[in-house]
Design goal:
The structure is a single chain. The chain contains 18 helices and 18 strands. The chain is an alpha/beta fold. It has a 4-stranded parallel beta sheet with strand order 6-3-11-12, sandwiched between helices. Strands 7-8-9-10 form a 4-stranded antiparallel beta sheet. Helix 5 crosses helix 7, helix 7 crosses helix 10 and helix 17 packs antiparallel against helix 18. 45% of the residues are buried. It binds one RNA strand through helix 1, helix 10, helix 13, helix 15 and helix 18.
Length: 555
Amino acid sequence: MPLRLYNTLTKHIEPFIPGDPSHITFYTCGPTVYDDAHIGNFRSFLAADVLRRWIESPLCDVQAEGGARHRGPRRVTHVMNITDVGHMTDDAEGGESGEDRMSVAGRRLLEAKKAGKLPDNVSVDPSNPYQIAEFYANRFVEDARRLGLKVAIESQQDPTLMPRATQKVAGMIQVIRRLIDRGHAYAVGEPGKQTIYFHVPSFAPYGKLSGNTLDQLAEGKGGRISAANQAQKKHPADFLLWKSDPSHVMKWDSPWGTGYPGWHIECTVMSAERLLLPGAPASGVVKQAAGGVGPALLDALVHLTDQTGIIDLHSGGEDNIFPHHECEIAQSCAAFNTHPEKGTFARMWFHPRFLLVDGEKMSKSKGNFYTPRDLFEKGIEPAAIRFEIIKTHYRSNANFTEQGLKDSQRTVDRWRTFLERADQGARDSSVDPEVGRWFALAMSNDLNIAEAIAEVNKWISRTHEPSLNDGMMMRTFDNVLGVLELSRAATAQTEIGVFRDGLAPDPAVLAKLNERAAARAGKNFKRSDEIRDELAKMGYGIKDIAGGKVEVRRA
RNA sequence: GGGCGGGUGCCAGAGUGGACAAAUGGAGCGGAUUGCAAAUCCGCUGCGCAAGCUUCGUGGGUUCGAAUCCCACCCCGCCCUCCA
Protein backbone atom coordinates (compact mmCIF):
# COMPACT_ATOMS: atom_id res chain seq x y z
CA MET A 1 0.00 0.00 0.00
CA PRO A 2 1.38 3.41 -0.89
CA LEU A 3 1.84 5.91 1.91
CA ARG A 4 -1.32 7.59 3.13
CA LEU A 5 -1.35 10.50 5.54
CA TYR A 6 -3.87 12.72 7.25
CA ASN A 7 -3.79 16.02 5.42
CA THR A 8 -4.75 18.91 7.68
CA LEU A 9 -5.75 20.87 4.60
CA THR A 10 -8.38 18.40 3.41
CA LYS A 11 -9.16 16.80 6.80
CA HIS A 12 -8.83 13.37 5.24
CA ILE A 13 -6.39 10.52 5.20
CA GLU A 14 -5.29 10.43 1.60
CA PRO A 15 -2.43 9.17 -0.55
CA PHE A 16 0.67 11.29 -0.38
CA ILE A 17 1.31 12.22 -3.99
CA PRO A 18 4.52 14.20 -4.40
CA GLY A 19 5.61 16.13 -7.45
CA ASP A 20 8.55 13.84 -8.04
CA PRO A 21 8.25 10.53 -6.19
CA SER A 22 11.97 9.92 -6.41
CA HIS A 23 12.80 13.11 -4.58
CA ILE A 24 10.57 14.58 -1.91
CA THR A 25 10.77 18.16 -0.66
CA PHE A 26 9.89 18.58 2.99
CA TYR A 27 9.85 21.67 5.17
CA THR A 28 9.44 21.64 8.94
CA CYS A 29 8.82 24.72 11.05
CA GLY A 30 11.67 24.58 13.50
CA PRO A 31 12.20 26.06 16.92
CA THR A 32 12.34 29.65 18.05
CA VAL A 33 15.61 29.83 19.88
CA TYR A 34 15.17 31.93 22.97
CA ASP A 35 15.42 28.99 25.35
CA ASP A 36 16.29 25.29 25.34
CA ALA A 37 13.84 23.15 23.42
CA HIS A 38 11.80 20.79 25.58
CA ILE A 39 10.54 17.28 24.92
CA GLY A 40 7.26 18.71 23.65
CA ASN A 41 9.08 20.65 20.97
CA PHE A 42 10.98 17.54 20.09
CA ARG A 43 7.85 15.52 19.71
CA SER A 44 6.83 17.39 16.61
CA PHE A 45 10.36 17.45 15.22
CA LEU A 46 10.85 13.75 15.83
CA ALA A 47 7.49 12.91 14.29
CA ALA A 48 8.61 14.78 11.19
CA ASP A 49 11.91 12.94 11.35
CA VAL A 50 10.24 9.53 11.47
CA LEU A 51 8.07 10.55 8.54
CA ARG A 52 11.03 11.57 6.41
CA ARG A 53 12.89 8.41 7.38
CA TRP A 54 9.89 6.34 6.42
CA ILE A 55 9.61 8.04 3.04
CA GLU A 56 13.30 7.31 2.49
CA SER A 57 12.94 3.68 3.44
CA PRO A 58 13.23 0.92 0.82
CA LEU A 59 10.04 -0.49 2.37
CA CYS A 60 7.99 2.60 1.59
CA ASP A 61 5.91 2.92 -1.54
CA VAL A 62 4.60 6.26 -2.64
CA GLN A 63 1.93 7.03 -5.17
CA ALA A 64 3.00 9.04 -8.18
CA GLU A 65 0.83 11.48 -10.07
CA GLY A 66 -1.29 9.41 -12.42
CA GLY A 67 -1.54 6.56 -9.96
CA ALA A 68 1.68 4.63 -10.56
CA ARG A 69 3.43 3.21 -7.56
CA HIS A 70 6.94 4.38 -6.80
CA ARG A 71 8.98 1.95 -4.75
CA GLY A 72 11.49 3.04 -2.17
CA PRO A 73 14.11 3.96 -1.37
CA ARG A 74 14.03 7.59 -2.37
CA ARG A 75 15.64 10.84 -1.56
CA VAL A 76 14.16 13.42 0.77
CA THR A 77 15.41 16.95 1.09
CA HIS A 78 14.28 17.98 4.51
CA VAL A 79 14.68 21.59 5.58
CA MET A 80 14.07 22.80 9.09
CA ASN A 81 14.43 26.46 9.85
CA ILE A 82 15.63 28.09 13.01
CA THR A 83 13.70 31.16 14.02
CA ASP A 84 16.30 33.34 15.60
CA VAL A 85 14.35 36.58 15.31
CA GLY A 86 12.60 37.85 18.41
CA HIS A 87 10.13 39.97 16.49
CA MET A 88 7.30 39.99 19.00
CA THR A 89 6.97 43.42 20.46
CA ASP A 90 3.31 42.89 21.22
CA ASP A 91 4.17 39.74 23.03
CA ALA A 92 1.96 39.25 26.04
CA GLU A 93 4.30 36.77 27.63
CA GLY A 94 7.10 39.28 27.65
CA GLY A 95 5.11 40.99 30.35
CA GLU A 96 3.09 44.15 30.43
CA SER A 97 5.84 45.91 28.57
CA GLY A 98 5.45 43.57 25.60
CA GLU A 99 9.13 42.90 25.81
CA ASP A 100 10.89 41.09 23.02
CA ARG A 101 11.54 37.45 23.71
CA MET A 102 15.20 37.73 22.94
CA SER A 103 15.45 40.46 25.54
CA VAL A 104 13.75 38.24 28.08
CA ALA A 105 16.16 35.46 27.18
CA GLY A 106 19.04 37.89 27.59
CA ARG A 107 17.96 38.76 31.10
CA ARG A 108 17.70 35.10 31.95
CA LEU A 109 21.13 34.40 30.54
CA LEU A 110 22.59 37.33 32.42
CA GLU A 111 21.20 35.93 35.66
CA ALA A 112 22.59 32.51 34.85
CA LYS A 113 25.95 34.06 34.11
CA LYS A 114 26.00 35.96 37.38
CA ALA A 115 25.01 32.84 39.25
CA GLY A 116 27.87 31.02 37.56
CA LYS A 117 25.48 28.57 35.96
CA LEU A 118 26.79 28.93 32.45
CA PRO A 119 29.39 26.43 31.33
CA ASP A 120 32.91 27.84 31.32
CA ASN A 121 33.51 27.19 27.66
CA VAL A 122 30.54 29.31 26.66
CA SER A 123 30.98 32.94 25.92
CA VAL A 124 27.76 34.70 25.19
CA ASP A 125 26.98 38.36 25.61
CA PRO A 126 23.51 38.50 27.20
CA SER A 127 22.96 41.97 25.82
CA ASN A 128 23.46 40.82 22.25
CA PRO A 129 20.31 39.19 20.85
CA TYR A 130 22.19 37.63 17.97
CA GLN A 131 24.54 35.91 20.37
CA ILE A 132 21.66 34.76 22.54
CA ALA A 133 19.95 33.24 19.55
CA GLU A 134 23.18 31.64 18.41
CA PHE A 135 23.74 30.24 21.88
CA TYR A 136 20.36 28.53 22.00
CA ALA A 137 20.45 27.53 18.34
CA ASN A 138 23.68 25.66 18.94
CA ARG A 139 22.26 23.93 21.96
CA PHE A 140 19.20 22.96 20.00
CA VAL A 141 21.20 21.43 17.17
CA GLU A 142 23.29 19.55 19.70
CA ASP A 143 20.20 18.06 21.38
CA ALA A 144 18.64 17.31 18.02
CA ARG A 145 21.69 15.38 16.85
CA ARG A 146 21.79 13.34 20.02
CA LEU A 147 18.17 12.40 19.46
CA GLY A 148 18.87 11.39 15.91
CA LEU A 149 17.09 14.19 14.10
CA LYS A 150 18.44 13.50 10.66
CA VAL A 151 18.14 17.03 9.34
CA ALA A 152 20.27 18.29 12.21
CA ILE A 153 22.89 15.65 11.49
CA GLU A 154 22.90 16.44 7.78
CA SER A 155 23.18 20.13 8.40
CA GLN A 156 26.73 19.56 9.55
CA GLN A 157 27.58 18.89 5.92
CA ASP A 158 24.97 21.16 4.41
CA PRO A 159 24.07 24.14 6.61
CA THR A 160 21.48 25.32 4.08
CA LEU A 161 19.20 22.58 5.40
CA MET A 162 18.79 24.51 8.65
CA PRO A 163 18.50 28.12 7.57
CA ARG A 164 18.41 30.96 10.07
CA ALA A 165 15.71 33.56 9.71
CA THR A 166 18.10 36.41 10.48
CA GLN A 167 20.10 35.50 7.40
CA LYS A 168 17.13 35.42 5.06
CA VAL A 169 15.75 38.91 5.56
CA ALA A 170 16.78 40.03 2.06
CA GLY A 171 14.58 37.29 0.62
CA MET A 172 11.70 38.28 2.85
CA ILE A 173 11.94 41.83 1.58
CA GLN A 174 11.80 40.52 -1.98
CA VAL A 175 8.71 38.50 -1.30
CA ILE A 176 7.00 41.34 0.54
CA ARG A 177 7.75 43.59 -2.40
CA ARG A 178 6.16 41.03 -4.69
CA LEU A 179 3.08 40.82 -2.48
CA ILE A 180 2.68 44.59 -2.61
CA ASP A 181 3.14 44.55 -6.41
CA ARG A 182 0.49 41.90 -6.82
CA GLY A 183 -1.98 43.76 -4.64
CA HIS A 184 -1.92 41.36 -1.70
CA ALA A 185 -0.18 43.65 0.74
CA TYR A 186 -0.32 47.30 1.68
CA ALA A 187 1.66 49.83 3.65
CA VAL A 188 0.41 52.04 6.43
CA GLY A 189 2.23 54.92 8.06
CA GLU A 190 4.61 57.56 6.83
CA PRO A 191 7.26 56.68 4.27
CA GLY A 192 10.39 55.49 6.01
CA LYS A 193 8.39 54.23 9.01
CA GLN A 194 5.88 51.99 7.33
CA THR A 195 4.20 48.83 8.46
CA ILE A 196 3.28 46.30 5.79
CA TYR A 197 0.26 44.05 6.17
CA PHE A 198 -0.92 41.12 4.12
CA HIS A 199 -4.49 41.78 3.08
CA VAL A 200 -6.28 38.59 3.94
CA PRO A 201 -9.47 39.16 1.89
CA SER A 202 -7.24 39.19 -1.20
CA PHE A 203 -6.73 35.45 -0.77
CA ALA A 204 -10.10 33.71 -0.93
CA PRO A 205 -9.09 30.28 0.46
CA TYR A 206 -7.82 31.85 3.68
CA GLY A 207 -9.09 29.70 6.52
CA LYS A 208 -9.19 26.42 4.68
CA LEU A 209 -6.34 24.86 6.64
CA SER A 210 -7.60 25.70 10.11
CA GLY A 211 -11.30 25.48 9.33
CA ASN A 212 -11.70 29.06 10.40
CA THR A 213 -13.53 31.46 8.19
CA LEU A 214 -12.98 35.17 8.30
CA ASP A 215 -16.39 35.91 9.79
CA GLN A 216 -15.99 33.14 12.37
CA LEU A 217 -12.64 34.28 13.61
CA ALA A 218 -13.51 36.07 16.79
CA GLU A 219 -11.10 38.92 16.75
CA GLY A 220 -8.96 39.12 19.82
CA LYS A 221 -10.25 35.89 21.38
CA GLY A 222 -6.72 34.72 21.84
CA GLY A 223 -6.01 37.89 23.77
CA ARG A 224 -2.80 38.62 21.93
CA ILE A 225 -3.49 41.52 19.69
CA SER A 226 -3.33 45.15 20.61
CA ALA A 227 -6.08 47.59 19.77
CA ALA A 228 -3.68 50.18 18.45
CA ASN A 229 -2.27 47.84 15.84
CA GLN A 230 -5.70 46.55 14.91
CA ALA A 231 -6.99 50.03 14.18
CA GLN A 232 -4.67 50.65 11.26
CA LYS A 233 -5.46 47.42 9.41
CA LYS A 234 -7.87 47.31 6.50
CA HIS A 235 -9.25 44.02 7.76
CA PRO A 236 -8.95 42.71 11.31
CA ALA A 237 -7.39 39.46 10.11
CA ASP A 238 -4.65 41.16 8.09
CA PHE A 239 -1.28 40.12 9.36
CA LEU A 240 2.12 41.70 9.65
CA LEU A 241 4.76 41.32 6.96
CA TRP A 242 7.08 44.12 7.97
CA LYS A 243 7.20 46.36 10.98
CA SER A 244 9.32 49.49 10.91
CA ASP A 245 10.70 49.95 14.38
CA PRO A 246 14.22 51.31 14.71
CA SER A 247 14.11 50.69 18.46
CA HIS A 248 13.74 46.93 18.03
CA VAL A 249 16.54 44.76 19.38
CA MET A 250 16.97 43.05 16.00
CA LYS A 251 16.49 45.24 12.97
CA TRP A 252 17.25 45.48 9.27
CA ASP A 253 16.97 48.15 6.61
CA SER A 254 14.14 47.83 4.14
CA PRO A 255 12.42 49.98 1.52
CA TRP A 256 9.75 50.72 4.15
CA GLY A 257 11.99 51.65 7.01
CA THR A 258 14.34 50.05 9.50
CA GLY A 259 12.63 47.28 11.38
CA TYR A 260 11.91 43.60 11.40
CA PRO A 261 9.93 41.05 9.36
CA GLY A 262 6.69 39.40 10.37
CA TRP A 263 6.78 35.89 11.68
CA HIS A 264 5.01 34.07 8.85
CA ILE A 265 7.03 35.46 5.98
CA GLU A 266 10.24 33.79 7.09
CA CYS A 267 9.02 30.27 6.42
CA THR A 268 7.71 31.16 3.00
CA VAL A 269 11.14 32.42 2.12
CA MET A 270 13.25 29.75 3.73
CA SER A 271 11.26 26.90 2.25
CA ALA A 272 11.09 28.42 -1.22
CA GLU A 273 14.71 29.39 -1.27
CA ARG A 274 15.96 25.91 -0.51
CA LEU A 275 13.29 23.63 -1.88
CA LEU A 276 11.75 24.95 -5.05
CA LEU A 277 14.69 23.91 -7.14
CA PRO A 278 15.93 20.97 -5.14
CA GLY A 279 19.64 20.53 -5.20
CA ALA A 280 20.43 23.86 -6.81
CA PRO A 281 23.29 25.27 -4.80
CA ALA A 282 22.95 28.87 -3.78
CA SER A 283 25.27 30.71 -6.11
CA GLY A 284 27.18 33.64 -4.73
CA VAL A 285 26.82 35.54 -7.98
CA VAL A 286 23.07 35.28 -8.05
CA LYS A 287 22.89 36.08 -4.39
CA GLN A 288 24.73 39.33 -4.95
CA ALA A 289 22.57 40.30 -7.89
CA ALA A 290 19.34 39.66 -6.01
CA GLY A 291 20.35 41.26 -2.78
CA GLY A 292 20.85 38.04 -0.91
CA VAL A 293 18.14 35.94 -2.50
CA GLY A 294 18.93 32.37 -3.49
CA PRO A 295 18.37 31.19 -7.05
CA ALA A 296 15.31 29.08 -6.29
CA LEU A 297 13.48 31.94 -4.67
CA LEU A 298 14.58 34.33 -7.35
CA ASP A 299 13.24 31.93 -9.94
CA ALA A 300 9.95 31.62 -8.07
CA LEU A 301 9.60 35.36 -8.03
CA VAL A 302 10.29 35.61 -11.75
CA HIS A 303 8.30 32.62 -12.96
CA LEU A 304 4.91 32.18 -11.39
CA THR A 305 3.78 28.59 -11.16
CA ASP A 306 0.53 26.83 -12.01
CA GLN A 307 1.18 23.97 -9.65
CA THR A 308 -1.14 23.73 -6.67
CA GLY A 309 1.49 22.46 -4.30
CA ILE A 310 5.02 23.63 -4.88
CA ILE A 311 6.63 21.74 -2.03
CA ASP A 312 5.61 18.20 -1.16
CA LEU A 313 5.34 18.19 2.59
CA HIS A 314 5.13 20.75 5.32
CA SER A 315 5.04 20.00 9.03
CA GLY A 316 4.80 21.85 12.30
CA GLY A 317 3.25 21.51 15.74
CA GLU A 318 -0.51 21.67 15.98
CA ASP A 319 -0.34 25.22 17.29
CA ASN A 320 1.14 26.25 13.95
CA ILE A 321 -2.01 25.42 12.02
CA PHE A 322 -3.45 28.80 12.81
CA PRO A 323 -2.30 31.43 12.27
CA HIS A 324 1.16 30.51 11.10
CA HIS A 325 0.54 27.96 8.37
CA GLU A 326 -2.71 29.56 7.32
CA CYS A 327 -0.84 32.78 6.72
CA GLU A 328 2.06 30.99 5.10
CA ILE A 329 -0.25 29.44 2.53
CA ALA A 330 -1.84 32.81 1.81
CA GLN A 331 1.35 34.73 1.30
CA SER A 332 3.21 31.94 -0.50
CA CYS A 333 0.45 31.33 -3.00
CA ALA A 334 -0.05 35.05 -3.43
CA ALA A 335 3.63 35.43 -4.18
CA PHE A 336 4.38 32.36 -6.29
CA ASN A 337 1.19 31.12 -7.95
CA THR A 338 -0.28 32.33 -11.23
CA HIS A 339 -3.67 31.75 -9.66
CA PRO A 340 -3.10 32.08 -5.93
CA GLU A 341 -6.54 30.83 -4.96
CA LYS A 342 -5.73 27.49 -6.57
CA GLY A 343 -2.57 27.00 -4.60
CA THR A 344 -1.96 25.02 -1.43
CA PHE A 345 1.77 25.78 -1.12
CA ALA A 346 2.48 22.28 0.23
CA ARG A 347 0.80 19.19 -1.16
CA MET A 348 0.51 17.63 2.26
CA TRP A 349 0.21 19.39 5.62
CA PHE A 350 1.33 17.31 8.58
CA HIS A 351 0.68 18.37 12.19
CA PRO A 352 1.71 16.26 15.18
CA ARG A 353 -0.24 16.88 18.37
CA PHE A 354 1.12 18.11 21.66
CA LEU A 355 2.77 15.96 24.24
CA LEU A 356 1.40 15.73 27.77
CA VAL A 357 3.45 14.81 30.79
CA ASP A 358 1.79 12.62 33.43
CA GLY A 359 -1.49 13.33 31.71
CA GLU A 360 -1.18 17.05 32.12
CA LYS A 361 0.08 19.99 30.20
CA MET A 362 3.76 20.40 30.61
CA SER A 363 4.62 23.52 32.51
CA LYS A 364 7.48 24.77 34.58
CA SER A 365 5.24 25.61 37.51
CA LYS A 366 3.85 22.07 37.66
CA GLY A 367 7.34 20.65 37.78
CA ASN A 368 6.67 18.35 34.86
CA PHE A 369 8.75 20.28 32.38
CA TYR A 370 11.59 18.36 30.76
CA THR A 371 14.24 19.19 28.24
CA PRO A 372 16.33 16.46 26.64
CA ARG A 373 19.27 17.93 28.52
CA ASP A 374 17.56 17.35 31.86
CA LEU A 375 17.04 13.73 30.93
CA PHE A 376 20.53 13.19 29.54
CA GLU A 377 21.90 14.51 32.81
CA LYS A 378 19.90 11.95 34.72
CA GLY A 379 21.71 9.33 32.68
CA ILE A 380 18.76 8.44 30.49
CA GLU A 381 20.02 7.48 27.11
CA PRO A 382 18.89 9.28 23.94
CA ALA A 383 17.53 6.08 22.43
CA ALA A 384 15.07 5.61 25.29
CA ILE A 385 13.94 9.23 25.10
CA ARG A 386 13.51 9.06 21.36
CA PHE A 387 11.55 5.82 21.55
CA GLU A 388 9.30 7.16 24.30
CA ILE A 389 8.56 10.31 22.32
CA ILE A 390 7.89 8.66 18.95
CA LYS A 391 5.99 5.56 20.02
CA THR A 392 2.54 7.15 20.05
CA HIS A 393 0.54 8.03 16.97
CA TYR A 394 1.40 11.58 15.97
CA ARG A 395 -2.21 12.74 15.86
CA SER A 396 -3.08 12.01 19.48
CA ASN A 397 -1.73 13.58 22.62
CA ALA A 398 1.07 11.34 23.76
CA ASN A 399 1.61 10.97 27.47
CA PHE A 400 5.19 11.16 28.61
CA THR A 401 5.78 9.40 31.91
CA GLU A 402 8.66 8.06 33.90
CA GLN A 403 7.19 4.57 33.69
CA GLY A 404 6.92 4.97 29.94
CA LEU A 405 10.55 5.95 29.79
CA LYS A 406 11.45 2.76 31.65
CA ASP A 407 9.29 0.70 29.30
CA SER A 408 11.01 2.32 26.37
CA GLN A 409 14.43 1.61 27.79
CA ARG A 410 13.55 -2.05 28.12
CA THR A 411 12.36 -2.24 24.56
CA VAL A 412 15.52 -0.57 23.34
CA ASP A 413 17.62 -3.02 25.36
CA ARG A 414 15.75 -6.00 24.00
CA TRP A 415 16.07 -4.77 20.44
CA ARG A 416 19.76 -4.16 20.90
CA THR A 417 20.29 -7.64 22.27
CA PHE A 418 18.43 -9.06 19.31
CA LEU A 419 20.58 -7.11 16.89
CA GLU A 420 23.78 -8.18 18.62
CA ARG A 421 22.72 -11.80 18.44
CA ALA A 422 21.70 -11.43 14.80
CA ASP A 423 25.09 -10.00 13.95
CA GLN A 424 26.64 -13.19 15.25
CA GLY A 425 23.98 -15.34 13.68
CA ALA A 426 23.95 -17.64 10.69
CA ARG A 427 24.97 -16.27 7.34
CA ASP A 428 22.62 -17.98 4.93
CA SER A 429 19.40 -18.06 6.81
CA SER A 430 16.45 -16.41 5.13
CA VAL A 431 14.57 -13.62 6.76
CA ASP A 432 10.96 -13.73 7.95
CA PRO A 433 8.94 -12.85 4.86
CA GLU A 434 6.04 -11.36 6.77
CA VAL A 435 7.49 -8.77 9.08
CA GLY A 436 8.64 -6.28 6.46
CA ARG A 437 5.24 -6.29 4.85
CA TRP A 438 3.38 -5.76 8.10
CA PHE A 439 5.76 -3.05 9.16
CA ALA A 440 5.28 -1.27 5.84
CA LEU A 441 1.54 -1.66 5.98
CA ALA A 442 1.41 -0.09 9.43
CA MET A 443 3.72 2.79 8.61
CA SER A 444 1.95 3.56 5.37
CA ASN A 445 -1.35 3.74 7.18
CA ASP A 446 -0.97 7.32 8.37
CA LEU A 447 2.25 6.44 10.17
CA ASN A 448 0.85 3.87 12.57
CA ILE A 449 4.12 3.56 14.40
CA ALA A 450 2.66 1.75 17.41
CA GLU A 451 1.49 -1.07 15.19
CA ALA A 452 4.81 -1.11 13.37
CA ILE A 453 6.58 -1.45 16.71
CA ALA A 454 4.22 -4.25 17.67
CA GLU A 455 5.13 -6.09 14.45
CA VAL A 456 8.81 -5.78 15.26
CA ASN A 457 8.20 -7.11 18.76
CA LYS A 458 6.21 -10.08 17.52
CA TRP A 459 8.89 -10.86 14.98
CA ILE A 460 11.62 -10.71 17.62
CA SER A 461 9.61 -13.00 19.87
CA ARG A 462 9.22 -15.66 17.21
CA THR A 463 12.77 -15.39 15.91
CA HIS A 464 14.71 -17.44 18.42
CA GLU A 465 17.89 -17.64 16.44
CA PRO A 466 18.30 -14.44 14.45
CA SER A 467 20.50 -14.59 11.38
CA LEU A 468 22.63 -11.98 9.67
CA ASN A 469 19.68 -11.30 7.40
CA ASP A 470 17.49 -10.67 10.40
CA GLY A 471 20.06 -8.17 11.56
CA MET A 472 19.83 -6.40 8.24
CA MET A 473 16.06 -6.38 8.52
CA MET A 474 16.31 -4.92 12.00
CA ARG A 475 18.57 -2.18 10.69
CA THR A 476 16.09 -1.44 7.94
CA PHE A 477 13.43 -0.94 10.60
CA ASP A 478 15.72 1.06 12.76
CA ASN A 479 16.67 3.36 9.93
CA VAL A 480 13.05 4.42 10.13
CA LEU A 481 12.68 4.55 13.90
CA GLY A 482 16.18 5.87 14.46
CA VAL A 483 16.62 4.37 17.90
CA LEU A 484 19.34 1.72 17.97
CA GLU A 485 21.72 3.81 15.93
CA LEU A 486 21.89 6.47 18.64
CA SER A 487 25.01 6.60 20.69
CA ARG A 488 24.79 5.78 24.32
CA ALA A 489 26.97 6.56 27.24
CA ALA A 490 30.23 4.71 27.16
CA THR A 491 30.55 1.55 29.20
CA ALA A 492 33.36 1.60 31.70
CA GLN A 493 34.93 -1.75 32.54
CA THR A 494 36.98 -2.82 35.50
CA GLU A 495 38.13 -6.21 36.73
CA ILE A 496 34.80 -6.84 38.32
CA GLY A 497 32.30 -4.30 37.07
CA VAL A 498 30.72 -3.25 33.79
CA PHE A 499 29.39 0.26 34.32
CA ARG A 500 26.54 1.30 32.06
CA ASP A 501 24.54 4.49 31.73
CA GLY A 502 27.68 6.60 31.73
CA LEU A 503 28.49 5.68 35.31
CA ALA A 504 32.09 6.02 36.37
CA PRO A 505 33.60 3.17 38.44
CA ASP A 506 33.21 4.69 41.88
CA PRO A 507 35.76 3.26 44.38
CA ALA A 508 33.05 2.89 46.99
CA VAL A 509 31.00 0.84 44.57
CA LEU A 510 33.99 -1.23 43.53
CA ALA A 511 34.74 -1.98 47.16
CA LYS A 512 31.20 -3.23 47.64
CA LEU A 513 31.35 -5.32 44.49
CA ASN A 514 34.58 -6.94 45.65
CA GLU A 515 33.19 -7.56 49.09
CA ARG A 516 30.12 -9.09 47.53
CA ALA A 517 32.19 -11.31 45.27
CA ALA A 518 34.11 -12.54 48.29
CA ALA A 519 30.90 -13.15 50.21
CA ARG A 520 29.45 -15.13 47.34
CA ALA A 521 32.62 -17.14 46.93
CA GLY A 522 32.28 -18.04 50.61
CA LYS A 523 28.60 -18.77 50.07
CA ASN A 524 27.70 -16.00 52.47
CA PHE A 525 24.60 -15.12 50.49
CA LYS A 526 23.03 -13.18 53.30
CA ARG A 527 25.86 -10.68 53.17
CA SER A 528 25.92 -10.59 49.40
CA ASP A 529 22.21 -9.74 49.30
CA GLU A 530 22.72 -7.03 51.89
CA ILE A 531 25.33 -5.47 49.69
CA ARG A 532 22.96 -5.50 46.75
CA ASP A 533 20.41 -3.66 48.89
CA GLU A 534 23.04 -1.19 50.02
CA LEU A 535 23.98 -0.45 46.44
CA ALA A 536 20.32 -0.01 45.57
CA LYS A 537 20.06 2.60 48.29
CA MET A 538 23.03 4.35 46.72
CA GLY A 539 21.17 4.43 43.44
CA TYR A 540 22.79 1.49 41.68
CA GLY A 541 21.17 -1.59 40.26
CA ILE A 542 23.40 -4.60 39.73
CA LYS A 543 23.13 -7.91 38.03
CA ASP A 544 25.54 -10.78 37.59
CA ILE A 545 26.57 -11.33 34.03
CA ALA A 546 28.81 -13.72 32.16
CA GLY A 547 32.46 -13.99 33.13
CA GLY A 548 31.84 -13.45 36.81
CA LYS A 549 31.35 -9.74 36.25
CA VAL A 550 28.65 -7.50 37.58
CA GLU A 551 26.76 -5.03 35.46
CA VAL A 552 26.07 -1.76 37.22
CA ARG A 553 23.34 0.58 36.09
CA ARG A 554 21.41 3.44 37.57
CA ALA A 555 18.62 1.99 39.65
C1' G B 1 -18.93 31.70 20.67
C1' G B 2 -16.23 29.27 16.48
C1' G B 3 -12.53 25.78 14.23
C1' C B 4 -9.54 21.26 14.82
C1' G B 5 -7.33 16.45 16.98
C1' G B 6 -8.29 12.88 20.65
C1' G B 7 -11.10 9.75 24.81
C1' U B 8 -9.83 1.71 24.53
C1' G B 9 -8.22 -3.01 29.78
C1' C B 10 -3.85 -1.72 36.18
C1' C B 11 -0.34 1.70 32.96
C1' A B 12 1.32 3.10 27.96
C1' G B 13 -0.89 2.24 23.44
C1' A B 14 -3.00 -0.39 18.54
C1' G B 15 -7.69 -1.66 16.51
C1' U B 16 -12.34 2.09 13.29
C1' G B 17 -18.85 -2.83 10.92
C1' G B 18 -18.32 -9.87 12.01
C1' A B 19 -11.81 -13.40 12.52
C1' C B 20 -12.43 -8.65 19.34
C1' A B 21 -12.61 -10.07 25.74
C1' A B 22 -9.75 -6.46 22.17
C1' A B 23 -2.56 -6.32 18.97
C1' U B 24 2.14 -4.91 21.29
C1' G B 25 5.15 -3.35 25.46
C1' G B 26 5.12 -2.63 30.73
C1' A B 27 3.19 -4.05 35.48
C1' G B 28 1.09 -8.43 38.20
C1' C B 29 0.66 -13.89 38.97
C1' G B 30 2.50 -19.09 38.16
C1' G B 31 6.48 -22.20 36.08
C1' A B 32 11.70 -23.25 33.85
C1' U B 33 16.56 -21.15 34.90
C1' U B 34 19.45 -18.66 39.10
C1' G B 35 22.32 -19.54 45.89
C1' C B 36 18.66 -15.36 45.61
C1' A B 37 18.15 -11.66 41.97
C1' A B 38 18.66 -9.74 36.89
C1' A B 39 18.18 -11.33 31.90
C1' U B 40 15.83 -15.08 29.01
C1' C B 41 11.95 -18.73 27.92
C1' C B 42 6.73 -20.90 28.74
C1' G B 43 1.67 -20.12 30.66
C1' C B 44 -2.08 -16.95 32.99
C1' U B 45 -4.02 -11.86 34.05
C1' G B 46 -12.79 -8.62 32.75
C1' C B 47 -16.51 -12.12 35.46
C1' G B 48 -17.79 -17.37 35.47
C1' C B 49 -16.09 -24.43 36.64
C1' A B 50 -18.71 -24.13 32.20
C1' A B 51 -22.46 -23.11 28.26
C1' G B 52 -22.34 -18.05 28.90
C1' C B 53 -22.33 -12.92 30.76
C1' U B 54 -20.69 -7.78 31.04
C1' U B 55 -16.78 -4.21 28.78
C1' C B 56 -13.83 0.09 24.62
C1' G B 57 -16.05 8.56 27.79
C1' U B 58 -21.96 8.86 28.63
C1' G B 59 -26.91 8.29 26.71
C1' G B 60 -29.79 7.19 22.53
C1' G B 61 -30.12 5.22 17.36
C1' U B 62 -28.91 2.29 12.62
C1' U B 63 -27.69 -3.03 11.72
C1' C B 64 -28.68 -10.04 11.78
C1' G B 65 -24.15 -8.01 14.12
C1' A B 66 -20.97 -1.86 16.71
C1' A B 67 -14.86 -0.34 20.25
C1' U B 68 -15.74 0.55 14.99
C1' C B 69 -21.44 4.00 11.54
C1' C B 70 -25.25 8.14 12.99
C1' C B 71 -27.20 11.84 16.75
C1' A B 72 -26.77 14.36 21.40
C1' C B 73 -23.97 15.23 25.60
C1' C B 74 -19.41 15.05 28.80
C1' C B 75 -14.05 15.13 29.30
C1' C B 76 -8.78 16.11 27.57
C1' G B 77 -5.46 18.72 24.15
C1' C B 78 -4.54 22.77 20.42
C1' C B 79 -6.05 27.32 18.00
C1' C B 80 -8.97 32.18 17.15
C1' U B 81 -2.68 36.91 15.42
C1' C B 82 4.42 34.77 20.30
C1' C B 83 4.22 29.29 20.94
C1' A B 84 6.15 22.08 18.87
